[in-house]
């Protein structure tokens, strides 16, 4: 069956460049690959007291979506040289229940963005470490770091063809990794 990818954006703002990029990738998914951008606006701040049944509705939905996916795209900006709390929050929810993390065993492609030349590269390294802690499988090799994203986005659509084809090649590598791990 065709691989299903769930895309998580660590930016909650409506006009997010990061979310726009994920939506553009979803709209242009390679043939035979399904990419869905997850709704994350209703995910509360992680609190272990809330992490009991019945789980908050958004959390239960997100965990089920990630569980059902073959792989994950983790898109994030960078705040103060680090992954934003909103990105870490998603990863924390998806790291539990202990031993049954929705993200455990999932191949993941990290995509960081910035209007600056640095492309969120510091957040990229942190996300990689956190995914490793959770037992996800962040893709090695070329990293997707997108600088000057404000110049590459028009009306909520990521328009830089060169960058898009580079990222699509990395999405194909993720799909290859999924296939290899299924064997
Ligand atoms: C930023 N921004 C930023 N950018 C960066 O490359 N490195 C950084 O350390 C920071 N720090 C930072 C802190 C805070 C609190 C904010 C609000 C912003 C700029 C950031 O990249 C920019 O706002 C992006 O547009 C955010 O991504 P989305 O929301 O467009 O996806």
Question: What are its keywords?
Answer:
183 residues, 5 helices, 8 strands, binds ligand FNR, NAD(P)H-dep_reductase, FMN_Rdtase-like_dom, Flavoprotein-like_sf
Report on this structure:
By secondary structure, the chain is α/β, with parallel strands linked by helices. The chain has one domain: 3-Layer(aba) Sandwich (Rossmann fold). Helices cover 37% and strands 17% of the residues. The strands form two sheets. Strands 1, 2, 3, 4, 5 and 6 form a six-stranded parallel sheet that branches. Strand 4, helix 4 and strand 5 form a beta-alpha-beta unit. The longest helix has 22 residues. The two termini are 14 Å apart. Ligand FNR binds next to helix 1. The site of ligand FNR has 16 residues, from helix 1.
Structural class: alpha/beta
Global outline = globular
Determine the CATH superfamily.
Flavodoxin domain
- Number-wise, the strands total 8
Low-confidence stretches: none
Largest sheet: 6 strands, parallel
Small molecules (ligands, ions, cofactors) in the structure: ligand FNR
Task: Give the ordered list of helices and strands.
Answer: EHEHEHEHEEEEH
How many domains would you count in the coordinates? 1
Output the radius of gyration: 15 Å
Helix content: 25-40%
Provide the CATH topology.
Answer: Rossmann fold
């Amino acid at each position: 069956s065709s691989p299903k990818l769930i895309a998580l954006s660590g930016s909650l703002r409506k006009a997010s460049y990061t979310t726009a990029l994920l939506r553009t990738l979803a709209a242009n998914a390679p043939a035979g690959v399904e990419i869905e951008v997850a709704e994350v606006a209703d995910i509360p701040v992680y609190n272990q007291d809330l992490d009991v049944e019945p789980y908050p509705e958004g959390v239960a939905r997100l965990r089920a979506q990630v569980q059902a996916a073959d792989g994950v795209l983790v898109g994030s900006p960078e705040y103060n040289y680090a992954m934003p709390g909103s990105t870490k929050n998603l990863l924390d929810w998806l790291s539990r229940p202990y031993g049954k993390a929705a993200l455990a065993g999932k191949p993941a492609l990290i995509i960081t963005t910035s209007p600056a030349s640095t492309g969120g590269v510091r957040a990229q390294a942190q996300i990689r470490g956190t995914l490793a802690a959770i037992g996800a499988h962040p893709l090695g090799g070329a990293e997707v770091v997108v600088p000057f994203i404000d110049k590459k986005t028009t009306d909520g659509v990521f328009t830089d063809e060169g960058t898009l084809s580079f990222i699509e090649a990395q999405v194909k590598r993720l799909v290859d990794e999924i296939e290899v791990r299924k064997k």
